[in-house]
């Protein structure tokens, strides 16, 4: 089973939050690079990168991504992996997401199947875009929002819409439902085992709210990877607000160390 991303990935900003949500949430490229350096020192091997336009809004501009990747590499001495995202965030259509995959030069990209294949008519164009990205060496991670999407992913792989050699992200919860329930990981892993993908594709989890730490601890203990950071959660387990992304990374890195896990980068 090939490992494409590190044990701990940090997602420091996302597409929706800004400094009004937390003063330490990075928005500019310089802020993202400084946060990347701090989070890498704290134990994150990969950065899940979002870029913003001049007004601070979510952007899929390939040139902004290129500038941010250069800044992160400079800030971390090239030691931190960088994963871009095609997330629509209600701002971009499927054509714009595929265009980013064609234009960006990155080590890795996260893509959401429900956005890239909103209906069967988009399968052929998305298959071509994913194959081209994989052919250029971009490691693909498929974002899944419900356990039922796992069987869909397996079907898309079997039919050649999704190229092999991917990783997955289980999104456990939503912003608007009060956080994540650690017990739901059982449902995800049952669907994962039933799909035939278990043992062939690495899996990662992200979670929302103060339960994030418990969810990620369970994922690490069961053989998964962890994505932590202000994109999904601003809080410590006791409900108080964390100081910054590096604090949240350090907390998960301590858990991983206690389990004998090592950072892949």
Observed structural traits:
265 residues; alpha/beta; TIM Barrel; 8-stranded parallel barrel; two-stranded antiparallel ribbon; 38% helix
Written account of the structure:
The structure is a single chain. This protein has 265 residues and is an alpha/beta fold. It has helices spanning 29-42, 62-76, 94-103, 113-116, 123-135, 148-158, 185-195, 212-221, 245-258; strands at 8-10, 46-48, 51-52, 58-59, 81-85, 108-112, 139-144, 167-172, 203-207, 225-228. An eight-stranded parallel barrel has the order 1-2-5-6-7-8-9-10, surrounded by six helices. The two termini are 17 Å apart. The mean pLDDT is 94.
What is the secondary structure topology, with strand pairs?
Layout: E1 8-10, H1 29-42, E2 46-48, E3 51-52, E4 58-59, H2 62-76, E5 81-85, H3 94-103, E6 108-112, H4 113-116, H5 123-135, E7 139-144, H6 148-158, E8 167-172, H7 185-195, E9 203-207, H8 212-221, E10 225-228, H9 245-258
Parallel strand pairs: 1-2, 1-10, 2-5, 5-6, 6-7, 7-8, 8-9, 9-10
Antiparallel strand pairs: 3-4
Helix pairs in contact: 1-2, 1-9, 3-5, 6-7, 8-9
Strand order of the largest sheet: 1-2-5-6-7-8-9-10
CATH topology: TIM Barrel
So how many helices? 9
Overall residue-averaged pLDDT value: 94
CATH architectural label: Alpha-Beta Barrel
What structural class results from the helix and strand content? alpha/beta
* Number of strand elements: 10
Please give the share of residues in helix. 25-40%
Enumerate the spans where pLDDT stays under 50 for 5 or more consecutive residues. Answer: none
CATH top level label = Alpha Beta
Distance between the termini: 17 Å
Shape: globular
Evaluate the radius of gyration: 17 Å
What is the assigned CATH homologous superfamily? Aldolase class I
């Amino acid at each position: 089973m090939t490992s494409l991303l590190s044990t701990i990935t940090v997602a420091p900003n996302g597409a929706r939050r800004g400094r009004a949500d937390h003063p330490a949430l990075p928005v500019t490229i310089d802020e993202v690079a400084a946060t990347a350096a701090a989070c890498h020192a704290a134990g994150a091997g990969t950065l899940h990168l979002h870029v913003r336009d001049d007004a601070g809004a979510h952007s899929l501009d390939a040139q902004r991504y290129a500038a941010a990747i250069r800044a992160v590499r400079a800030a971390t001495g090239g030691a931190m992996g960088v994963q871009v995202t095609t997330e629509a965030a209600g701002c971009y259509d499927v054509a714009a997401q595929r265009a980013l995959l064609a234009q960006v030069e990155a080590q890795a990209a996260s893509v959401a199947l429900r956005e890239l294949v909103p209906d069967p008519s988009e399968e052929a164009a998305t298959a071509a875009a994913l194959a081209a990205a994989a052919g250029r060496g971009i490691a693909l991670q498929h974002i899944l929002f419900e356990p039922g999407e796992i069987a869909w992913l397996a079907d898309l792989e079997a039919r050649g819409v999704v190229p092999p050699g991917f990783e997955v992200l289980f999104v456990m919860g939503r912003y608007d439902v009060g956080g994540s329930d650690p017990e739901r990981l059982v449902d995800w892993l049952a669907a994962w085992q039933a799909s035939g993908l278990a043992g062939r594709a690495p899996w990662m989890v992200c979670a929302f709210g103060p339960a994030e730490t418990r969810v990620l601890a369970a994922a690490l203990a069961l053989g998964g990877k962890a994505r932590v950071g202000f994109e999904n959660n601003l809080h410590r387990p006791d409900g108080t607000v964390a100081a910054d992304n590096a604090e949240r990374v350090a907390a998960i890195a301590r858990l991983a160390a206690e389990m004998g896990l090592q950072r892949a980068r």
